[in-house]
Amino acid sequence: MKKNNITFQSCEANYNESQVVIFSAPLDCTTSFRPGTRFAGNAIRVDSAGVEWYSCYQDKSLKDYKTCDLGEIYLPVGDAIKSLDLIYKTVKTILNDNKFPIMIGGEHLASYGSIKAVYEKYPLLRVIHFDAHTDLREKFLGMKFSHATFLRHVHNDFLGDDKIFSFGIRSGDKEEFEWAKTHIFMNKFNLDHLDEVIEKVKDYPVYVTIDLDVLDPSIFPGTGTPEAGGITFKEFLDGILKFVSLNNIVGFDMMELSPSYDPSGVSTAVACKTLRELILIAHNK
Amino acid sequence: MKKNNITFQSCEANYNESQVVIFSAPLDCTTSFRPGTRFAGNAIRVDSAGVEWYSCYQDKSLKDYKTCDLGEIYLPVGDAIKSLDLIYKTVKTILNDNKFPIMIGGEHLASYGSIKAVYEKYPLLRVIHFDAHTDLREKFLGMKFSHATFLRHVHNDFLGDDKIFSFGIRSGDKEEFEWAKTHIFMNKFNLDHLDEVIEKVKDYPVYVTIDLDVLDPSIFPGTGTPEAGGITFKEFLDGILKFVSLNNIVGFDMMELSPSYDPSGVSTAVACKTLRELILIAHNK
Amino acid sequence: MKKNNITFQSCEANYNESQVVIFSAPLDCTTSFRPGTRFAGNAIRVDSAGVEWYSCYQDKSLKDYKTCDLGEIYLPVGDAIKSLDLIYKTVKTILNDNKFPIMIGGEHLASYGSIKAVYEKYPLLRVIHFDAHTDLREKFLGMKFSHATFLRHVHNDFLGDDKIFSFGIRSGDKEEFEWAKTHIFMNKFNLDHLDEVIEKVKDYPVYVTIDLDVLDPSIFPGTGTPEAGGITFKEFLDGILKFVSLNNIVGFDMMELSPSYDPSGVSTAVACKTLRELILIAHNK
Amino acid sequence: MKKNNITFQSCEANYNESQVVIFSAPLDCTTSFRPGTRFAGNAIRVDSAGVEWYSCYQDKSLKDYKTCDLGEIYLPVGDAIKSLDLIYKTVKTILNDNKFPIMIGGEHLASYGSIKAVYEKYPLLRVIHFDAHTDLREKFLGMKFSHATFLRHVHNDFLGDDKIFSFGIRSGDKEEFEWAKTHIFMNKFNLDHLDEVIEKVKDYPVYVTIDLDVLDPSIFPGTGTPEAGGITFKEFLDGILKFVSLNNIVGFDMMELSPSYDPSGVSTAVACKTLRELILIAHNK
Amino acid sequence: MKKNNITFQSCEANYNESQVVIFSAPLDCTTSFRPGTRFAGNAIRVDSAGVEWYSCYQDKSLKDYKTCDLGEIYLPVGDAIKSLDLIYKTVKTILNDNKFPIMIGGEHLASYGSIKAVYEKYPLLRVIHFDAHTDLREKFLGMKFSHATFLRHVHNDFLGDDKIFSFGIRSGDKEEFEWAKTHIFMNKFNLDHLDEVIEKVKDYPVYVTIDLDVLDPSIFPGTGTPEAGGITFKEFLDGILKFVSLNNIVGFDMMELSPSYDPSGVSTAVACKTLRELILIAHNK
Amino acid sequence: MKKNNITFQSCEANYNESQVVIFSAPLDCTTSFRPGTRFAGNAIRVDSAGVEWYSCYQDKSLKDYKTCDLGEIYLPVGDAIKSLDLIYKTVKTILNDNKFPIMIGGEHLASYGSIKAVYEKYPLLRVIHFDAHTDLREKFLGMKFSHATFLRHVHNDFLGDDKIFSFGIRSGDKEEFEWAKTHIFMNKFNLDHLDEVIEKVKDYPVYVTIDLDVLDPSIFPGTGTPEAGGITFKEFLDGILKFVSLNNIVGFDMMELSPSYDPSGVSTAVACKTLRELILIAHNK
């Protein structure tokens, strides 16, 4: 008899034998409006029982690949800076072991730690960013590290100009939209021009960071700051599937599911289905 | 003073005087993920108070037709096989009395009993199937009769090749998709080609079985296994309304509402509106 | 230290200094199906913390304008006629002070009081009406004043023929649709022909009354009578933004949010975002 | 085949053969805080499937008695006065036919109509009243007929001093408590002294009106104005069972369930169990 | 890096080194009213993060003991008989390895499988049963094996007269209460006489089966058939703690949590706290 | 016309004219399990519409006193230390102006800031503490300032031994219970001995800090870490009312309502009723 093991659907391989490694980072302390992303990781694991392991979109099955689910990493609640360091170290280790990291959020700030680790391995890194919100404030409520500032500091602290490609943006402060014009590529409202961006970054290492609130809240109500006017799931899935042909993807994250806000469980089901597709893409790289 | 009578909106005629007969089959025991379809029938009856009896899509009103609502049929909880037999007998009786049956689910397995009865009266039967899921497994968790297998056994046990036309499918096992290629017509993801199929079956008796999870979970979260990427309500309604011109429809079912998962009541309202349209179409036949 | 003040995001100006004045009218007593619109006003105020004051659609910010939020007006629960009179007087005062009124519902009947006041100031008034329901019954359950009759009496009591332009309608009684043909302009199902209507009314004073259930319930489940088949938020927002160029708008209302039916908070977030856009448009007039 | 019939558990007898007649009165328009009692009647009918027909408290079973469930009576939404008249006429008819009426609320104001009819048949009537709230205002928000005034007008309009016995009261205005001292018997907070009151009224006809919010909201959260500090279900049941020995009870009502506020369904289950006990007591009379 | 492992709080030992072994049995197919107990096991595991590992009632900590959490055992959905056999085999193995089994339900029928295995090892077995419901029907809806019949068949199939001691019972059919009088000990409504029963069984092996609906639904709404009038948590805990002094306990189960019915999470928290106490008691044996 | 003003029921006086001042502190960033206390303040304000201003327990009315509701104080999300300083300064100002402060939480850590300010004005301060949890850890998850440590640091940083009197405690780590024995007075499980403690502290200035989770979760599910086995509302209210006779109370707080976890609204109603009683007691001092 073996002791219990709840993982994301079919991701039961050991770390050493796996090419793709998933983990969840329950960072949830700088959210200004509605908290709750800390519950995303285990909600996804438990509800993944409702997801087929076969994708009829990619004609591939999770069963045919070795994936390790590390589970939740331990984070000190209320201490964002130590938490970012722990996330950074986790991703660093996964990359050093030549595995592909996929992080499940938690709040979007967690991506700062992950992208920093990826950048150190891949200094030519480009970041593709799906989100409803700019996340480009210099400070938010007096703090540098916040879910509303993370991308600005990814830029300021290490990545620099013209490396970030944002899609789906429909909310932010005027200053953020102004700043974006000269520092990053921003495609407001939808995923138009994603093909051109993929063409542009195809020879660079690419990290894809997905704030699930890029989706319209009709299909993804379970998030802290729902923002109407987002993309449909079909538009989203079409966008994701374009990454199948992008050979240099080196990391994924999928952030900001806050499952309690959606008692129907649909938001968690959307995250599960998205994660299945991301894992299958990652195994291609 | 007369005793109480809760029926679907305006369906208060007696059995004998009705051309269309509706009933609900609270089968809900083989669902592997989230149960609850047993509550669909009465939820639809009670909430039908919020539905107009006039359809501005068909320019017809429930008030102008005689429809009988038999209510819930009694099913032995936990015994799928006896339950299928009771459903079969109910539909058989309705057909023998030359009335048009409409079944409200309950899990999709219930359609096995209904389609079997319809097939016996109409051996040339064709089945049009709206669903997110293939439902084509040979066995599921070791059992022949399950919500994940019902269509396969409709095929195997009596209907045979080239009689089933599935639409909207976006989830299943690889084997099911493979099997489908040589045994049934399957239109993945949407209702494209429905016109061609209608043209093809127009001289045969046709049964339409609708798993409401064919709809995108944004508009229909109240179901056991929500599957993002479905059709919008407008696409769905356009599909339904095509049946107005299909003269040989001999039965309908509308399955898999699980009302508790949608505290907003929208899923039940969607089922009520759909049922109104189906009843009005049935009165045309 | 100053006492507490909860207003809609950034609408903290005093009455006298404001060009635009918002208030909520918690009328909620003639609703036949699901009540609860009385809670809309304060739900919108509290949750407006999650809304940016900057609109990237209009490139304008609430911070740059003086707007007064009067809060809830006191209404005698259960007395629709006295309530309508109080709403009428509130709007009358705002108009007399040469300010722009925006009312937050409450049930749609409240618009009768508001439109009456606006009409008295602007006898050439035209009304643009977004709604899922006709609201054109002569009487409903034996009563003249009801959420299902309000527009008929706006017509009968003062406005008259060819002044009302309804959009998005997809539910009502046959008689209502018949009556509409000769008395008002009605665009069923969507906002098609809105450009032509705007062109037609552009030299008249225009009041815009929005029943938020014109939206599809996938994005707006929090309402008393959800009616599938509505417009998407993008279609809705495109419609709203057309009013930027309509120079004679003299009043807005936004009705029928019933927040308790949507535990995800998305419906309230949609109302907040819509209200931000309406306020910014109003400051243009 | 017979058409559908949803009644309270086992109450399927025809009107003529029944000694006890239940009906629901969905009055729900003067509630000042949280509405929703209109949904109580059908929620109780549907969920009564979860209630045994046998009471181990009274050692009697619903199956052994003839009870008719008339269902919902039609009320014009938003018109309290016409509604009271319809309730009055319903109870009047039941009493004229020498049957025992049990009304399911709906808001407590409905009891005015019922008690008036009972009083006309039994001019010596005494009323036992379980409630958290005094319901003794002269006017509320300017109106005579309101859920907060009903008992005062039962007193003023026909019943007079020393005929009303209130229990469990823990909320009201100072004036109500003052007025109560000289006009009615009031036992605050609990059911103490119920035995003495029963002794005092045992030779008079007695009507028992139960606002279910007399229960502590821990066991009955599904009501419009939950008021902590109420009685436990055991104290409540003990109180109810005292009526077994009170031979002159001539009517019951059970008011103010608002099922949507309790997603667990427990409040509805409590109402179902209470109703079973009331029906069994009524069959004793 | 180690792969993920979600267990009940602190129960991370391997099977071989553990004296106490817990597992969950997601049987959930014969429930006649509201299903959902299948979700109990993982809900308890995930939410056990909110439970201290130290009990201030027993002054002991989970950290000081080796406990193995086997997780969910695989059950074929919809096949009660095969499921009972799998449960039986699991408990049999645990007992053969001289470990103490604790089962988390699932519906109460699962206890049949567990008790059968325990009985085979301990033919002198006594069963202490906490429940709101009798569970003593011969057949229910035509079936032998059902959540409403399990205890009758524990009696009939192997245990026999005077071995079962039921507490807290307050719902059932008349025949069940009659049958109980001559075959088992039944203490209705509460835990009175538990001390005497413990005295009586103290020299026999004892299995304790707890249907959590013995608790009043005020503290435990998350169950399929809530039955008002149950014991408080303090009465329940006092009862549980009496087992500390009962030296011959050989197995526990804790059944019928249905977490979705309680969105507050309190029911799951109650189950977690109860399970902590049961594990600590088991380590005493 | 005056702009909007949502305050707690009847607390509409200006700061200068008020003897009692209430404010809310939405601190919500160190909670380890379920967050959400940030929403308590405005939930209480909005739902206070359902609370009578008259207390039949104290025979006094909010209407007869001047109370100022300052609303929410601004706190930098995610920065506990700056937040504590802002809370400290707010209470300091209120005390300097010789007014009585009542703080609404937010997480319990906020009380550290409030008690520190009170202590500086009253160095002989005693603290009466109602809570389910010890809150006496030295560090929690590596951090000094946390909801699980606040009371230890109130002791360590300024208050010292034998000044803290805890009641209702039923959860914590073994070390906390051990430490408590020699440093504070702790009454586990209930409010027994409160009379004696009141007698003991009656000549000292007293601050009362109430974690509402001292209540049993049956009546107060809306909190982050519900802990079964708490006191009933009647026991709680009896305890609160003892403070009427305690002449030296100098401050109150009422913490840890997390309204989203209780969709019934009962928890918020309990907090509203408690706050009414606290305000009325404060006006006595």
Description:
Six copies of one chain form a homohexamer. Chain A is 32% helix and 18% strand. Chain A has 285 residues and is α/β, with parallel strands linked by helices. The first copy, chain A, has one domain: Arginase, Chain A (3-Layer(aba) Sandwich). In chain A, the strands form two sheets. An eight-stranded parallel β-sheet of chain A has the order 4-1-5-10-9-6-7-8, with helices on both faces. In chain A, β2 (54-55) and β3 (60-61) form a beta hairpin. The interface between B and D is medium-sized, with 24 and 24 residues.
Number of domains of chain A: 1
* Oligomeric grouping of the chains: homohexamer
Would you tell me the structural class of the helices and strands of chain A? alpha/beta
Number of helices of chain A: 8
Largest interface: A-E, 24 and 24 residues
Task: Point out poorly predicted stretches of chain A.
Answer: none
CATH class of chain A: Alpha Beta
Shape of chain A: globular
Strand percentage of chain A lies at: 15-25%
* Helix content range of chain A: 25-40%
Supply database-style keywords.
285 residues; 8 helices; Arginase, Chain A; eight-stranded parallel beta sheet; homohexamer; 10 strands
Put the structure in a nutshell:
Helix content of chain A is 32%, strand content 18%. By secondary structure, the first copy, chain A, is an alpha/beta fold.
Question: Could you give the topology of this structure?
Answer:
6 copies of one chain form a homohexamer.
Chain A: E1 20-25, H1 40-47, E2 54-55, E3 60-61, E4 67-72, H2 80-96, E5 100-105, H3 110-121, E6 126-130, H4 150-159, E7 164-169, H5 174-183, E8 185-188, H6 194-201, E9 206-211, H7 233-242, E10 249-255, H8 266-282
Parallel strand pairs in A: 1-4, 1-5, 5-10, 6-7, 6-9, 7-8, 9-10
Antiparallel strand pairs in A: 2-3
